[in-house]
Amino acid sequence: MLLNYVMLIISCDDTAVSVLSSDGNVLSTRNYANREAQARIGGICPYVSAAQHRKLIDKFVDECLVDCGKRLCDLDGVAVTTRPGLAIALAVGAEKAVRLSRKGHIPLIKVHHMQAHATVASLFHAAIKYPFVAVLISGGHSLIALVIGANQFKILIEANSSSPGECFDKIARQLPINDYYLKNFSGGAIIEQLAANSSHDGYSKYLINMPRSKDANFNFSSITNSYLQLLSKMKLDIDIKDFCAGVQFTVAAYLAKKLHHCMEFLYESDEIKTISKTEFIVLSGGVASNGYIRNALEKVATFYGHSLIVPPLHLCCDNAEMIAWNGIKLLQEKYILDYCPLDVNYCQRNRWNISSITPRKHLSLKSITSERLLFHFRRTT
């Protein structure tokens, strides 16, 4: 049966609405983010974003319904981001979704922002089946998970602090570059553009020690602080393009190392029987738009015999379509709230700690720049 949905996503800075059918057809969509204001104030201000959402959300919903020729009561559900994100911004979307659900007497579906990033891959790649491994890297979050269903995620690794996107943004803001870049591009895009023009092996001039932690989780704060200290110490005696290449290499190598860690765990753990059925590794989130990082992770995926799937770049960043699609999957699996009463509280996440697992072979980080990956095997006594 063909289902139609109206979707709202209010995460940080994007006001977006989309109507999507269960066959993957985008019937109508609207999206807006004030990048100029963000550049002027030096980042995302929750109160400014919330004001933007309140100003545009009613208009966007009305326009989308008109564009697709649907009435609210024609829709089979309304999906909305409820976690994670800036609470003051999420509240605008949640309140609007509740009103729409009650007015149209249609179910409400609570969507986890990062789960939507993972499942959007199946919107354009129908061959993707559960289970699959998801690498989700964005400006606010980073995690690697085994995806068993639309609402069933086994978290393998997540971030203790910061994220790759935040790492890029903080470093880019301290670079001695023209304001044009800062006003028109994200930190990640700035670093990728400058790194693309670096000298051969220029990245190797600005390498740092990889973060060490007691558990297996990400620690991008350590990478950020190390490069900010290096930038402050060297000041003008720095080759900006090679420096950016070093930052990009470090983040890519760190992600490749962690993905390798997860794949080793999945293959060696007796608890996991589904990994043999897994054909795909999905890479999504705003940072997935970085081609250097995609290339590094594709090498890891290929080494383990999997295909790396990356959504179209416009679907890697925050968008309404991914929330609607995840809402469709959740509605099909009966993860819904009746329009009365309604509850938009957060759900518990399923965590899976792998901190006790040490891989037998260790990835040679510099090999991500080569055609083939190299590994060092741990000696056993």
From TrEMBL:
Q: Which Enzyme Commission number(s) are listed? A: 2.3.1.234
What this protein is called in its record is N(6)-L-threonylcarbamoyladenine synthase
> What are the entry keywords?
Acyltransferase, Metal-binding, Transferase, tRNA processing
One Pfam family this chain carries?
A: TsaD
Q: Tell me the InterPro entries matching this sequence.
A: ATPase_NBD, Gcp-like_dom, KAE1/TsaD
Please provide one cellular component term from the Gene Ontology annotations of this protein. Answer: mitochondrion
* One MF annotation (Gene Ontology) recorded for this entry: metal ion binding
Can you supply a Gene Ontology BP term from the record? tRNA processing
* Keyword Ribosomal protein attributed: no
